[in-house]
Amino acid sequence: MDPDTMSADSTPDVPQTPQFALLDFFFPGFSMFASAVHKYAHIDLNLYIPLVMLFGALTLVWNYSSQYFWDQVESHFMSSVDIRIDDEIYNILMTWVANQRFAQGARRFVVNTNINSRSWYLWRWDYDEENEDGSDITGQSNESKKKALSYTPSFGTHYFWYRGRFLLFKRNSKESSSSFMAVSEREEISVCCFGRNPWILKELLHEARSLYMEKDQQKTLIYRGTTRSGSTEPTWQRCLARATRPFSTVILNKKTKQDLIDDVTDYLHPATQRWYSNRGIPYRRGYLLYGPPGTGKSSLSLALAGFFKMRIYIVSLSSITASEENLATLFAELPRRCVVLLEDIDTAGLTHTREQDKDGSESSAAPAPLEPGQLTPGNGNTKNEPVGRLSLSGLLNILDGVASQEGRVLIMTTNHLEKLDKALIRPGRVDMIVEFGHADTDMTASIFRAIFAHIEGDDDAAATPNTKELLDDEALKKEAAEKERRQKEDDARVEALAVEFAAKIPAHEFSPAELQGHLLRHKRDPRAAIDKADEFVEQTRKDRKEKEIKAAEEKRLAEEKRKEEEAKQKEEEDKKKKEEDEAKLKEEREKAKTEKKERKRKSKREERKKKRDESKRSSSGSGSDASSDSSSDESEAEDAQKKSAATKKPVEVPDVKPAKSKHEKKDSGYGTPTSVEA
Ligand SMILES: Nc1ncnc2c1ncn2[C@@H]1O[C@H](COP(=O)(O)OP(=O)(O)OP(=O)(O)O)[C@@H](O)[C@H]1O
Question: Ligand 1 test: best mutation among 295, 417, 508, most atoms within 8 Å of CB?
Fold first, then answer.
């Protein structure tokens, strides 16, 4: 290095360039570091600075432009599908993703025991594999059941190969989500592929759906009409996938059951749809199931849906969701082939007939007392009903409306057939009516058999798989024969017990649900169920009586309260009326008084006028007369003013002409007239 180029105060070994001065400014001590490097390593950093700066500039440019570049690639050269997290497609895709290698090998992942979207999960009353009583299908309790874990990739972009194509799975947190959403709901999910044709994404979604459906093959999918979480928008939420209930487990008159199956089979036949459309008849079929609570109406609907492998969509007309608008939206969203179960159509609003609607009169019948299971009081046409609730005509419009899908099986259930409007159950809306009743002797025996008879698969769990393999043919045959013999013996024993039990239960008094409840309490001991049958009968009767007394008492209290409120209201009205009458009377009295005074004054005036005329006639007339006239008129004006002050009303003083002095506007209140009209 040329020593001449060095300045006097600089470090002897390192040339002082403007870059160094600048770097020294940003990184104090850099020049010392550079001279040390130069001295000991013989490297002149001066040469590398432009390179470092260039690299920094390139990094900066890349940082800013890469996002733009990537956005351009995405919008022009890629296809993508966004997944709605409040839709069932979320569950479908995530179930698929959880089974992929890229998800299982992800370094950052989300673990779930339940793959369903948070908003779906919120509305599930049970998990798929569980029964209503909280135990799983193998009878284990929740505590002992181990839940399977599902792994899905965490937030970010994840790459994977699908059928030879390179795809991206993106899961991002949603910044703009409203704060009331649960944390797991604040996410956006999309799948992208290179190329402008999205067929591969559609294929992926179809595959995911088929896999998802396959899982549900042996189950009845139950959807419930509800509102989306965090909004009032109605939607069908999948809430349960239950093992299909065999028709045989619903105890009902054999012929009725067969007729129902035949009717639905015929209706669902493809030729029937053509037949309907050729004749211009709406392709719909409606069934009404009626009877006391716990007699099997819902069970039959579920069994029917399972038998025909259809999804069942349930909405209770006594729930808050069942407003006219919501129900119309729900019906418009139904798939083409499904079972729709409308529960509790006897809610008070719908028992109000259309005839009553027409003449505008109020229902003469008092609102029906609520039945067990009925959540809210009825709605519809009563005066105090909330706006937007369901009315009978609203429901009829929805059932017949163009928006409601053709091809569906509509089932309506009610506890009170007699309360329903004829329009609701006329042919076309209801094509078959099935009655459910309390159990007769045969039914009681059937319920007993259903609980205690040995069913294939009951002790599969106990059987060890290897024992069969060890046995030879002869032994197997022997075992099968033995099993058959035991089965026969068992059946005969259960049959005898069923008859014994049925004899102890009075016919047509108890619902199948009540009997089932008693039998389940002794499910391991049929003898105990029989021995305690009398106790059950007594206890149930007693409970019912207590319930009736309680209901009657509640009714009486409600009636008393209503009467009290009515009396109070009447008292208030009377009081108000009395006050109004008094005020009116007072006003009238005042008026009469004023009129009397007026009349008196008038007669006085006339008298004076008469006198004046007489005196005029008798004498030729003098100034004193005029002055006396003037004074009498003055007293009249004073009278008028006094009256005006008393009644606080502007009073006309007919005979007095107001003084036209310049002080007229600032009247002191005396109002002394200056001239009087005769
Ligand atoms: N006819 C029946 N056959 C078999 N089981 C029945 C029958 N009736 C009732 N049960 C049993 O009783 C319970 C309640 O029955 P379900 O819900 O079907 O009655 P429901 O008539 O729909 O009652 P609600 O009118 O209160 O809705 C179920 O567990 C069901 O298994």
Answer: 295
Q: In the prediction, which pLDDT does 17 show? A: 66
- Domains of the chain in start order, with CATH, are 3-75 (no CATH), 77-135+145-215 (no CATH), 220-357+370-437 (3.40.50.300), 473-540 (no CATH)
Q: Is the CB of 297 under 6 A from ligand 1?
A: yes
Burial 246-259 (b: 16+ CB within 10 A, else e): ebeebbbeeeebee
* Protein residue with least CA distance to atom 6, ligand 1: 296
Q: What is the DSSP letter of 352?
A: S
Query: Distance from the CA of 513 to the center of ligand 1, in angstroms?
Result: 5
User: Under a CB-based contact definition with an 8 Å cutoff, are residues 317 and 391 in contact?
Assistant: no
168 exposure class (CB count in 10 Å sphere: 0-12, 13-18, 19+): middle
Residues 6+ apart with CB under 8 A from 45: 34, 37, 38
CA-based Rg of the chain, rounded to a whole angstrom?
A: 47
Q: Is 219 helix (H, G, I), strand (E, B) or coil?
A: strand
* Nearest atom, ligand 1, residue 413 CA: 25
**Residue among 287, 516, 518 whose CB has most ligand 1 atoms within 8 A, to mutate:** 516
- Asked whether the beta carbons of 238 and 119 are under 8 A apart, the reply is no
Residue 260: which of 313, 314, 305 has the closest Cα?
A: 305
* Closest ligand 1 atom to 251 CA: 3
Ligand 1 test: best mutation among 242, 253, 298, most atoms within 8 Å of CB?
298
Cβ(391) – ligand 1 distance below 6 Å: no
Of 96, 121, 111, the residue nearest 201 (C-alpha): 96
Helices 392-400 and 324-332 pack at an angle, to 10 degrees, of 10
The answer, yes or no, to whether any atom of ligand 1 lies below 6 A from the CB of 303, is: no
Average confidence (pLDDT) per 10 residues, the chain, 678 residues:
43 59 78 84 79 85 86 89 84 88 84 58 39 39 59 88 92 66 68 91 93 81 80 79 84 90 92 89 90 92 91 84 82 87 77 45 40 34 49 84 74 90 86 92 92 72 52 79 86 92 93 94 91 93 93 94 94 95 95 94 92 85 49 52 51 43 42 39
